[in-house]
Amino acid sequence: MELIPRKDYFDDLFDSMMIEKTPSMKCDIYEEDNKYHIEMDVPGFKKENIKVNFENNYLTVTAKNESKEDNSNKKYIRKERNYQKISRRFYLDDVDEDSIEASFKDGTLAIVIAKKDKNKDKKYIEIK
Are 52 and 111 in contact, with CB atoms under 8 Å apart? Predict the structure, then answer.
């Protein structure tokens, strides 16, 4: 909450105390049936502008909207909807990276990641 305007009154004229200054991807993470489930809100983005990447045990979700050229003669007082890029990273140590699945519907990205079978990676050594 800002009690004193940053520069002058006009800059804060259209601000609301409840508006988030930095966009974020709010998410719910839960575990079910030996899988991690991530449900993430990504409103205002198209499916083709969302990228999910898994590298070095980090799952990274990035979404971006490119700016559209506005050739009208509008005299903007404030223009905030031109370009936006947001991302979130999660460290996942015990997952099967080949099992990662993602779907997008109604502004919600759903990611399902199977956990590694801990017994599968065990190596038993024969004693001679």
Answer: yes
